Amino acid sequence: MPTSHDVTSPAVVELIDVGKVYRNGELEVAALRGVSLRIDEKEFVAIVGPSGSGKSTLMHILGCLDVPTSGVFRIVGHDAQSLDEDVLARIRNMFIGFVFQQFNLLAHMTALQNVELPLVYAAIDPDERRARAVAALERVSLVDRAEHRPGELSGGQQQRVAVARALVTDPALILADEPTGNLDSVAAADVLVLLEELNADGRTLVLITHERDVATRAHRIIEMRDGQAVDSDHAVEVVRRGGRV
Amino acid sequence: MTWRDTLWTALDAVRSHRLRSSLTMLGILIGITAVVLTVGIGQGASATVRDQINELGTNLLVVSPGSSTNSTGVRTGFATATTLMQADATALTSKVAAPDVEAVSPVSTASAELVNPTTGANWTTTLTGTTPSWQTTRSRGAVQGRFLTATDERNAAAVVVLGPDTVTQLFPGVDPLGSSVTYNGVKLQVVGVLANLSSAEQAASNDLAVVPLSTYSQRLVGGASRNSVSSIYVKSTSAGTLSAAYQETNALLLNSHHVANAGTADFSVATQQSILAASNQVDNTLTVMLAGIAVISLLVGGIGVMNIMLVSVTERIREIGVRKAIGAAPSVIRRQFLVEASVLGLAGGLLGVGLGVLGAVLVPEFSDQRVILSIPASIGAIVIAVGIGVVFGVYPASRAARLAPIDALRSE
């Protein structure tokens, strides 16, 4: 139990005994088996674990991209299962910023247009949209690449555009799924620094990684194994071994 | 998401998939072009008939023989019998029995080969035997020389008035007046040339040889039915008295043919209106048939839109996932695909109407077919094209909207 947290302030996300079962024809695969955890404001949490351990599924549930088959998932106090798709879309838009391993930029749009897109869905007017997107690109030092399409940018630059897109709506929660997985070490370091800065600004950061040295930079590590979140003491051990805290 | 942004996104998607978008539009384009041209050709044909009828005059009745019932109860078709006589025409000229009839002209026609004895040129034309009143009933006279006179008729004179096209064939570059033509060895003096009918598109109107009816029946054609005529043109005193003239003609002929029941009459009286109606009916049948083809091509175009939009949804499943992950609600995704389909429909419709207009200009260049463009039909066609985009875009759009964001993101 993470007793060290202030129980009076609402959790950003809270999972109580969450299970997720995928059905593939006759075959049932349990990706999550009773995961309980809470993540509070301003935390930087790393989720680690081998592939197939359920960390991506956990991430998708945290990001309201998928719904649990059992248990309760609350996002800022609201039970996600009781919210309809439109509300979930608005939460993803305003409250969550995603950074994916595959960048997931739209290829036919310029960097600026990609960064603007969340604001388009938020129905922000064009002038403000542009100003905010330019500011976000400034933050990732890519203003000079604003009119380039993703295909004309390096992997590291694409991921920085994705970070700009994630922060442009000023979300409280940043979810990063293996953000450095496709990057060389220099670009990876740049992206990690950016993400840490966002956390330092007061945003909650949840980062999925299988690289221990990336995980050790987090305040807290949740280790996934066979669809279960492993005891935090073990995770703390990991952090200690990594030399932080 | 605002409508402006939705439209912009749709245009962007159409632009960035050029080949696919143009192929989709092609289906709609063909359908809409077909609709525009079909309606245009249909209206052109109607206008042509209307012009021809107007040229003849609206206060004209045409009496045709036939439709008699024989002893076995079989009714023969119109214009196949020889029941109409010269005497019938004479009777109709009575101011007492038919006060609303201004002029009557019996007409007999036969196909005839005329020869220019000087040059040996020969030409097969329609030999028409009629009386001088033909000028009045057909509103047509001679531009050169003179038309037939009562004296010609009385004397069964060997004279002929030629149509302008007939003159071109028999007397190329020569003034035909005073020359003669022969038919079956009978020499006919050319006394006049008929006025050219410009708007009538039937070549036959300008290719004919008019002789006195008496000459026709006594000296040229003759035979057993020498006193019967092919038709009788009756002109009423005015357009307003047409129905009175119709009643008088009908009653007089029923009486003189001793027919008690009008349903078994051995002749028929047609007004230009009824001929127009019949002609329009033929045109309408043709138009409906062509419109059917156009509708089928529109349907095929619509299915094309649906197919391409479904392919588009499958191809862009990852894009849809990304858009959902960053906050696009299902209704926004649905709207985006619907607008995209309507944009394709609208573009196809506009191009189709453009091509239809081009066709309407080009078709008359290469054929006699008149094409009249209809603005309501063109607007209607564009509305239909957009409608097709919307209707056939609904299914792909709702499939795109229903995709779970994570399934969409996970697909490669």
What does this structure look like?
The complex is a heterodimer of chains A (about 240) and B (about 400). Chain A has about 240 residues and is α/β, with parallel strands linked by helices. Chain A is built from 8 helices and 10 strands. Chain A has a 6-stranded mixed beta sheet, sandwiched between helices. Chain A has a 4-stranded antiparallel beta sheet with strand order 2-1-4-5, with helices on one face. Chain A is globular, with a radius of gyration of 18 Å. Chain B has 2 domains: about 5-50 and about 280-410, no CATH class; about 85-255, no CATH class. In chain B, about 55% of the residues lie in helices and about 15% in strands. In chain B, a hairpin with a 2-residue loop joins strand 6 and strand 7 (about 185-195). Chains A and B meet through helix 2 and helix 3 of A and helix 1, helix 10, helix 11 and helix 13 of B.
Query: What percentage of the residues of chain A does DSSP assign to strands (E)?
Result: 15-25%
CATH topology of chain A: Rossmann fold
CATH superfamily of chain A: P-loop containing nucleotide triphosphate hydrolases
Query: What is the top-level CATH class of chain A?
Result: Alpha Beta
Briefly note the structural class of the backbone of chain A: alpha/beta
Strand content of chain B: 15-25%
Spatial strand sequence of the major β-sheet of chain A: 6-7-8-3-9-10
Summarize the biggest pleated sheet of chain A: 6 strands, mixed
CATH architecture of chain A: 3-Layer(aba) Sandwich
Query: What is the number of strand segments of chain A?
Result: 10
Order of helices and strands of chain A: EEEHEEHEHHHEHEHEEH
Tally of DSSP β-strands of chain B = 10
Features:
heterodimer, A: about 240 residues, alpha/beta, Rossmann fold, 6-stranded mixed β-sheet, 4-stranded antiparallel β-sheet, 10 strands, about 35% helix, B: about 400 residues, alpha+beta, 2 domains, 13 helices, about 15% strand
